[in-house]
Amino acid sequence: MRTPPVTADTIVEVQNLEKRFGTFRAVAGVSFAVRRGEIFGFLGPNGAGKSTTIRMLCGLLAPTAGTGTVAGYDIRRDAEKIKTRIGYMSQKFSLYDELTVEENIDFYSGIYCLPREKKAVRKAWVLAMAGLEQHRHARTAELSGGWKQRLALGCAILHEPPILFLDEPTSGVDPNSRRQFWDLIYELSSQGVTIFVTTHYMEESEYCDRLGIIYRGELIALGTPRSLKTEHMPDAVLELECDRANDAMAVIERLPEIKSSALFGNGLHLVTPDHAAAIAATRTALTGAGFVVQRLERITPTLEDVFVALIEARDRADGTQKEVAQ
Ligand code: ADP
Ligand code: MG
Questions:
Q1: 4-8, 140-144, 186-190, 204-208: segment of lowest average pLDDT
Q2: Residue 206 within any structural domain of the chain
Q3: Residues with Cβ < 8 Å from 251, sequence gap 6 or more?
Q4: Among 224, 258, 283, which residue terminates a domain?
Q5: Å from CA of 274 to ligand 2 middle
Q6: Ligand 1 in contact with 46 (CB < 6 A)?
Q7: Is pLDDT above 70 for 252?
Q8: Which of 21, 60, 92 is the best mutation target for the ligand 1 pocket, counting ligand atoms within 8 Å of the beta carbon and taking the most?
Q9: Which CATH number does the domain housing residue 278 bear?
Q10: What is the CATH number of the domain that holds 22?
Q11: d(Cα 86, Cα 165) in Å, to the nearest integer?
Q12: Of 2, 97, 197, 325, which cross-links 141 as Cys (Cβ 3.0–4.6 Å)?
């Protein structure tokens, strides 16, 4: 992948970053740059290497190869300096369940060495931001997922870091809390905080300014959500609404004009290199087989379409390489 340009605006920058566990390459040489104030997302399935990358950027894990800087500090040499200048919310929210809300905040104020006068101000800010003023004496274990998540966010930014790393911050919380959480992220971003967030939710990826798609440790695409949909998808996507979508799929998959099909909401998404030919062939085949086609048209691909297409293309390329190697 092309090396990203480094400008004065760059706050995170890595080149060929790699992490091996034994012979296994969990992160297989990724290069990218994040601009100050950006919401940068890392989208990938479980095991893709998202957490491993974030932990290297936060100075928590030494890379096996490659270089990088965060807020101007070298991720190999200045790991300790990086830790004081970033906020990090790990996938498991590192809160102490047995402590009260307030005690957790006090604990993290101590970790970040906040001066005494700052402590009270920041505590009040976190309690208000998380909506936990009435629950300051509650045991953390008793909080709902959404509250825990907002408390964990508050504890991660007590020291007002200019950059915040969030590792799947919304996994396991309800959709309503997820939206509220994103409101907070936008709020922070509007104040100039850079956000690096990992997710496996498509809907969440749409909220990012720029997005890297990571798969098996490799960055397979990088761009704005819009550019990913327009530039990284060589094939057209058709949306089909018809009765008995599941049965219709069996008919459609036999058509040479259709590369792949998948259930999507109440209908189907069909991928094709030639949309006009595919629409004609699909209509004829379905009508002939007794289906009622309610709608069949070309659409702008969703991020999920792009994601699936890129991953399939990568799997095919890997398969071909293996065949060549044999
Ligand atoms: P993600 O966060 O995208 O789900 P991870 O970065 O946690 O993925 O993991 C990437 C791969 O590296 C996975 O296959 C995982 O099992 C492996 N892995 C992560 N940490 C370790 C470790 N400490 N030792 C060995 N393998 C690891
Ligand atoms: Mg992870």
A1: 4-8
A2: yes
A3: 285, 286, 289, 291
A4: 224
A5: 38
A6: yes
A7: yes
A8: 21
A9: 3.30.70.100
A10: 3.40.50.300
A11: 7
A12: 97
Tens digits of residue pLDDT in 208-226: 999 999 999 999 999 999 9
Q: What percent of the chain has pLDDT over 90?
A: 76
- The residues facing 213 across adjacent strands are 43, 221
How many domains, in total, are found in the chain?
2
Do 139 and 249 share a structural domain? no
* Residue at a domain's end among 203, 224, 245: 224
Which amino acid appears at position 322 of this protein?
K
User: If pLDDT is split at 50, 70 and 90, which confidence band does 281 have?
Assistant: very high
Q: Tell me the DSSP string of 260-326.
A: EEEEETTEEEEEES-HHHHHHHHHHHHHHTT--EEEEEEEPPPHHHHHHHHHHHHHHHHHHHHHHH-
Q: Kindly report the pTM of this predicted structure.
A: 0.89
Residue span of the structural domain in which 45 resides:
10-224
Contact 283, 293 (CB under 8 A): yes
CA geometry: angle 25, 28, 33, nearest 5 deg = 145
Cα of 310 vs centre of ligand 2, distance in Å, is 20
* Cα 312 from Cα 320, distance rounded (Å): 12
3-class DSSP state for residue 238? strand
CB atoms closer than 10 angstroms to residue 96: 13
- For the stretch 285-314, pLDDT in tens is 999 999 999 999 999 999 999 998 899 888
**Could you say which ligand is closest to the alpha carbon of residue 43?**
1
Is residue 117 located within the same domain as residue 97? yes
Does residue 29 sit in the same domain as residue 136? yes
Lowest-confidence region among 164-178, 249-263, 273-287:
164-178
Does residue 50's CB lie within 6 angstroms of at least one atom of ligand 1? Answer: yes
Does 170 map to a domain? yes
Query: What does the pLDDT read at residue 232?
Result: 85
List pLDDT tens digits, range 132-178: 999 999 999 999 888 999 999 999 999 999 999 999 998 878 888 88
Residue pair 151/143 in contact (Cβ under 8 Å)? The answer is yes
